[in-house]
């Protein structure tokens, strides 16, 4: 297959980890007889420096034409001035909006080889395999908001708004994902209090009953879910929720595996390219030292093959290679627990050696 992959290395450790992601994709192309075309574009802080904007028009145009987009990370102290006209993160928000990437997928699957890196007990997390779907372009982050004078000082509001279509499309995606997994969907809301959650719950139930009668479906309140996630994470398969609840729950969930350096994510729309990235940030504290863990980015590349290119066998080969290097005891500093560690390049090379 021919595929056009846009690389957005970004800032901080971004370029270091994207380099390893690209090498892995090249190795997969060679092994399975594909031809991947790579285009690297400025985005984030580096793009502010070179183009005066975090998302240059050329970058957006290249992304629109891509089959998949692999992003490192954006931002850093250099661009943190609160009075700045624009910020690196604004580029990412615009890109998601322009490409209508409404679903954020985050697998939470602690590696058995790294279970001691988790703050939770082995018997609680062992066997956990959750796929979170967070709605990304609606909800309270995008509803009407404002501040007005009030007798006590000021009053502010942020509205949580969802419509039928927004709920239906993400629930549909969750159900389709569940068909390829254990066949269970849990929808998380706050329907005992919020009107918007009651709509969410009605629409979700309807979509599941009409279109996915074979998928096991249940609902959990967000406050209870926050507890279940660390008391019985093994009981969940696909979890679908709105923008803010998903933001909070996925950060909580990211602690199960213990290290940010192992977690990929995908942002998908109805059509067009998906955006794939590690969940961690640009890690300015370790940038340019060659010690960042490239595995989250390599796993994000595998998600790109799976979700945007439909190359499931190739994606599985990358996942298996990551398992194999962990089995062999290879660790970067963030997952080493004091043991011997590899550099970013050495870890990438270990994965390449398995891929052959
Ligand atoms: P952002 O605001 O961009 O999300 P952040 O301040 O939340 O950034 P990260 O950049 O994700 O944080 O980094 C948090 C901590 O995790 C830092 O100490 C960083 O060095 C470490 N870290 C993040 N990613 C990696 C990685 N791939 N390998 C090793 N350590 C990492
Ligand atoms: Mg952060």
From TrEMBL:
Domain of life: Bacteria
UniProt-recorded name of the protein: 3-isopropylmalate dehydrogenase
Residues that hold Mg(2+) according to the record: 223, 247, 251
Name of the gene: leuB
InterPro entries: IsoCit/isopropylmalate_DH_CS (IPR019818), IsoPropMal-DH-like_dom (IPR024084), Isopropylmalate_DH (IPR004429)
Pathway: Amino-acid biosynthesis; L-leucine biosynthesis; L-leucine from 3-methyl-2-oxobutanoate: step 3/4
UniProt site (Important for catalysis): 141, 190
Described purpose of this protein according to its UniProt entry: Catalyzes the oxidation of 3-carboxy-2-hydroxy-4-methylpentanoate (3-isopropylmalate) to 3-carboxy-4-methyl-2-oxopentanoate. The product decarboxylates to 4-methyl-2 oxopentanoate.
């Amino acid at each position: 297959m021919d595929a056009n992959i846009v690389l957005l290395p970004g800032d901080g450790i971004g370029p270091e980890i994207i380099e390893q992601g690209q090498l892995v994709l090249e190795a997969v192309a060679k092994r399975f007889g594909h031809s991947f075309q790579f285009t690297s574009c400025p985005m984030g802080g580096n793009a502010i420096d070179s183009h005066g904007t975090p998302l240059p028009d050329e970058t957006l145009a290249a992304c629109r034409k891509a089959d998949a987009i692999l992003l490192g990370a954006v931002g850093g102290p250099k661009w943190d001035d609160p009075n700045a006209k624009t910020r690196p993160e604004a580029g990412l928000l615009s890109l998601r909006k322009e490409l209508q990437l409404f679903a954020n997928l985050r697998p939470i699957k602690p590696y058995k080889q790294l279970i001691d890196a988790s703050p939770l007990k082995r018997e609680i997390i062992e066997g956990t395999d959750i796929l979170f779907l967070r709605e990304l372009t609606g909800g309270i982050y995008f509803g009407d908001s404002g501040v007005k004078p009030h007798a006590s000082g000021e009053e502010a509001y942020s509205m949580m708004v969802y419509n039928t279509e927004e709920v239906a499309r993400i629930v549909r995606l969750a159900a389709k994902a569940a068909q390829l997994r254990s066949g269970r969907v849990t929808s998380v809301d706050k329907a005992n209090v919020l009107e918007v959650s009651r709509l969410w719950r009605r629409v979700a139930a309807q979509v599941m009953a009409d279109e996915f009668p074979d998928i096991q479906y249940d609902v959990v309140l967000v406050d209870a879910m926050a507890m279940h996630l660390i008391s019985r994470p093994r009981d969940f398969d696909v979890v679908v929720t709105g923008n803010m609840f998903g933001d909070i729950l996925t950060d909580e969930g990211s602690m199960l595996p213990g290290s940010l350096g192992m977690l990929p994510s995908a942002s998908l729309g109805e059509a067009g390219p998906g955006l794939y990235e590690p969940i961690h940030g640009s890690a300015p504290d370790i940038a340019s030292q060659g010690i960042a863990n490239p595995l989250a980015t390599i796993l994000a590349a595998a998600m790109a093959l799976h979700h945007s290119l439909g190359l499931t066998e190739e994606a599985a080969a990358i996942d298996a290679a990551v398992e194999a290097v962990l089995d062999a005891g290879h660790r970067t500093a963030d997952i080493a627990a004091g043991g011997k560690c590899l550099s970013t390049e050495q870890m990438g090379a270990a994965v390449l050696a398995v891929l052959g």
